[in-house]
C-alpha cells in the first residue's frame, strides 16, 4: 500500500513574498527619512530589511520604484478621504473643518512619508513623477471645491487658490514639529489650526464677500516640487 505524502504546513509563497516586500518598504521608509533618498544605498535597504541583494531585486525594480510606492500609497489615502468629505453631506465650512482634521491626522500618521516627499519628491522622474503630481492636484481640487462652495454660499470671504495652497502648506508643515508626547493630540492640533484658519476667512454676520482676483492658471505637468495636495502657483513663481 502506497502512503500518500503529507504536505508540510507553512505560509504560502505569495504570503512570504508579500511579507518580504513589506519589510523592504518599511526599511526604505526608515532610511529615506533618516538619510534622504540620495543618501541611501540599495544595499543598505536590503541589510535593514534582512534581504540579500540578489533577492532584493526580485521584489523591487529600483530604488525610485520604492520611493514612488511609498509616496503614492499615503497620497492615495489623503485623496480618498478628501473625496469622501467633499462629496458628502454638510455645509461647506463643516466640510472644510473635516478636511483639516483628516489632513492633520494623516500627516501625523504618515509624517515620515510626508517628510520624504517634501525633501525628495524631485527624485521621481517621468511617469512616476507625473502620476504622483496628478494625485496631489486632485486632492487640491477637492479642497478648492469645498472652498468655492463656501464662497458661493457667502460663508467664506474668499475662494482664491492662494488661500487653498497656503492652508495645505501650513498643514503639511505639521510633520516637522509634531511630537507624539507633546502637549496636544492630533485632533487638538487640528482644532487649533481650524479655528485659526477659519477665523481668518469666515465671513461675519452681515459681511459681504468680496469677489477675489483669482488665477486659474493650470500648473505645468513637468515639475513635481509642490507639497502633498498643493498646486504649484505659477503666477507667484514668476515674480
From TrEMBL:
Residues 18-78 form the HTH tetR-type domain. The keyword Oxidoreductase does not apply. PANTHER family: HTH-TYPE TRANSCRIPTIONAL REGULATOR RUTR, TRANSCRIPTIONAL REPRESSOR MCE3R. It holds the Pfam family TetR_C_24. Residues 230-239 have a biased composition (Basic and acidic residues). Residues 41-60 bind DNA. It comes from Nocardia transvalensis. This is AcrR family transcriptional regulator. GO terms for molecular function: DNA-binding transcription factor activity; transcription cis-regulatory region binding. The lineage of its organism: Bacteria, Bacillati, Actinomycetota, Actinomycetes, Mycobacteriales.
Amino acid at each position: 500500500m502506497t502512503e500518500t505524502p503529507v504536505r508540510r504546513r507553512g505560509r504560502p509563497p505569495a504570503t512570504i513574498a508579500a511579507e518580504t516586500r513589506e519589510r523592504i518598504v518599511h526599511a526604505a521608509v526608515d532610511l529615506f527619512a533618516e538619510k534622504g533618498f540620495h543618501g541611501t544605498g540599495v544595499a543598505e535597504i536590503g541589510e535593514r530589511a534582512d534581504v540579500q541583494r540578489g533577492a532584493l531585486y526580485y521584489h523591487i525594480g529600483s530604488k525610485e520604484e520604492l520611493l514612488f510606492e511609498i509616496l503614492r500609497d499615503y497620497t492615495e489615502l489623503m485623496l480618498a478621504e478628501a473625496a469622501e468629505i467633499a462629496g458628502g453631506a454638510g455645509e461647506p465650512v463643516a466640510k472644510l473643518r473635516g478636511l483639516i482634521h483628516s489632513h492633520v491626522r494623516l500627516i501625523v500618521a504618515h509624517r515620515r512619508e510626508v517628510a520624504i516627499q517634501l525633501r525628495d519628491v524631485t527624485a521621481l522622474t517621468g511617469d512616476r513623477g507625473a502620476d504622483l503630481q496628478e494625485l496631489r492636484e486632485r486632492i487640491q481640487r477637492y479642497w478648492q471645491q469645498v472652498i468655492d462652495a463656501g464662497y458661493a454660499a457667502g460663508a467664506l470671504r474668499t475662494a482664491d487658490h492662494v488661500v487653498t495652497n497656503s492652508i495645505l502648506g501650513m498643514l503639511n508643515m505639521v510633520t516637522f514639529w509634531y511630537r507624539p508626547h507633546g502637549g496636544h493630540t492630533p485632533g487638538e492640533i487640528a482644532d487649533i489650526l481650524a479655528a485659526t484658519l477659519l477665523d481668518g476667512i469666515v465671513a461675519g454676520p452681515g459681511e459681504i464677500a468680496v469677489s477675489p482676483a483669482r488665477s486659474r492658471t493650470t500648473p505645468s505637468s513637468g515639475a513635481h516640487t509642490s507639497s502633498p495636495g498643493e498646486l504649484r502657483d505659477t503666477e507667484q513663481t514668476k515674480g
